[in-house]
Amino acid sequence: LPGLHIFAMALALEVSVGKTNTVMALNNSNVLLPCVFTTCIGFQDLVFTWYFNSTEMLILLPLQIYQGKIKNKATEPTPIWHNPRVEFVGSTTKKDNNISIVLNGVEFSDAGKYTCHVKNPKERNAQHSATIFLTVVHKMVETDNTVTLIIVGVVGGLIGLLILFMLIKRVVLFIIKKTQDGKKECLVSSSGNDNTENGLAGSKAEQKAPPKA
């Protein structure tokens, strides 16, 4: 039934890694891998797991790098197993159900896909996951936005000129229209006056008696 379907959607477990699913890290640095989950009916004995798939070698099964368990909303997660280089930095007793981790001392071999997976027994073992793609670089390259700023400035200037031109055009058309309306009024008034004067003159001429012989 449609009502039951909407109700089921409202109770769905959701996992998110933020607005972007790509992260770039400098070699030998520490990088944050964000992840939060939401559920409308709460959770009990929730288990979350981080997996890694390397891009350099073919791995049939994802490598587990961190696994934790959360008893309920009032308790913080407890680790079940974790890679020594992985540190849990999230919290579930605060506003967001944050289960983010930090990968310390990243290497080029750490580049690849990281999956944040959550399973909630309270929602009939509902499961959901989200993925982050990590790129490891030797040097961070600063992007030069000069060209972009120039293009934006030129486009903005052209748009401004176009708007100004349209406004001037409207004003000129308005003035022309008013001038034409004024001329029409003058012509009508002048024509009316001439007819009246001619009529009066004709009337007066007709009223004069013919000269006596």
TrEMBL record:
UniProt keyword terms in alphabetical order: Disulfide bond, Glycoprotein, Immunoglobulin domain, Membrane, Signal, Transmembrane, Transmembrane helix
Region named Disordered: 185-213
One Gene Ontology CC term in the entry: voltage-gated sodium channel complex
Subcellular location: Membrane
Composition skew (Polar residues), residue ranges: 188-198
Gene3D superfamilies named among the record's database cross-references: Immunoglobulins
Transmembrane domains' residue ranges: 147-168
Membrane topology: Single-pass type I membrane protein
Keyword Coiled coil assigned: no
InterPro entries the UniProt entry points to: Ig-like_dom, Ig-like_dom_sf, Ig-like_fold, Ig_sub, Ig_V-set, Myelin_P0-rel
Glycoprotein is among the record's keywords: yes
Single GO MF annotation: sodium channel regulator activity
Sequence ranges assigned to domain Ig-like in this UniProt record: 2-133
Any one Pfam family match given in the protein's UniProt record, by short name: V-set
GO biological process: cardiac muscle cell action potential involved in contraction; regulation of ventricular cardiac muscle cell membrane repolarization
Official protein name in the record: SCN4B protein
